[in-house]
Amino acid sequence: MSYTAQAQSTQTPYRVTLTDPSGHVWYVDEPIEKGGQNTAPNPILILLSALGACTTVTLQMYADHKQIQLEHVQVDLVLNPQGEAVSSSSNQIEREIKLTGNFTEDQHKRLLKVAESCPVHKILTSNISIQTEMTF
């Protein structure tokens, strides 16, 4: 399956409008200290939120399919929790998943494995190739 998104600059410095073919619109901005207006999450927060959202949805779908009584999922994410700068060679994401519901210990263990199979987790832990073309 192929996914498509588009990013476009705006008149506001560092604010970007993001769209997809379905007509969804969302935004990215930088904090004030970096010259932005802080009107939306920055790109790294969007990346983290994609992992959190995908983890949550994957767990909910699995629980629904297996009829596991999963009432609530919360995913807390931190990039480079020791305060290291973002690196091109090594970064760490800490993901804490909090589940509420009525399930067995075996189901709980299975849910952890399921969380690691969400599509965004697979993308982030794979060997990613980005091919770029610039037009004028």
Account of the 3D structure:
This protein has three helices and five strands; from the N terminus they run βββαββαα. With 136 residues, it is an alpha+beta fold. The protein folds into two domains: 1-40; 42-126, 2-Layer Sandwich (GMP Synthetase, Chain A, domain 3). The strands form two sheets. It has a three-stranded antiparallel beta sheet, with no helix packed on it. Strand 2 and strand 3 (25-28) form a beta hairpin. The model has no long low-confidence stretch (mean pLDDT 95).
Q: Any idea of the CATH class of the largest domain?
A: Alpha Beta
- Write down the CATH topology of the largest domain: GMP Synthetase, Chain A, domain 3
Kindly name the structural category: alpha+beta
Instruction: Give the DSSP E fraction (strand runs of 2 or more residues).
Output: 15-25%
Termini, distance in Å?
29 Å
Q: Give Rg in angstroms.
A: 18 Å
* Lateral arrangement of strands in the main beta sheet: 1-2-3
The topology string of helices and strands comes to EEEHEEHH
Assign a percent range to the helix content: 25-40%
Low-confidence stretches: none
State the CATH architecture of the largest domain: 2-Layer Sandwich
Instruction: Report the biggest beta sheet as strand number plus sense, adding barrel if it closes.
Output: 3 strands, antiparallel
Number of helices: 3
